[in-house]
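Morning F.,

Quick status update on the modeling queue. The single chain you submitted on Monday has been processed. Sequence for confirmation:
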Amino acid sequence: MKRFEADVLKLGEQLRARGAMLATAESCTGGLIAALCTSVAGSSDWFERGFVTYSNAAKTEMLGVDAALIAAHGAVSAEVACAMVEGALAHSSAHIAIAVTGIAGPGGATPGKPVGTVWFALAQRGAAAEAELLQLGGDRTAVREQTLEFALQRLLALS
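Structure tokens below.
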């Protein structure tokens, strides 16, 4: 977490300058993005809340992701990532949200979705969600760290 401190401080400055709050909706990262954001003093000025929705039921109950959407596309999909980020905005007062859903491994891979498959979605209140796919390498720790780094870079570019 220490290696990301300067970027988190910069993100906080950018969000604070806009008067914007951030929410996260996380699956494969298990709350690491929220933990990173709240690791710096003063983050309550710009970090509104985080949802850790590891199970499909949690995605449905906490974020309002339609179970039929998960059944049709799988939890690791652009459609579900977008529904997660939209749910994070709908269930918070945040202005910006990020969602991640993926397969960190070592198990969980399916045909067409190998370990390291991670879908991101970003959205600002009032704008359409945008999804992006990454195919990451390495073990579980490496996939989660790369996901965290990518999420932080996308947030810095957006805010």
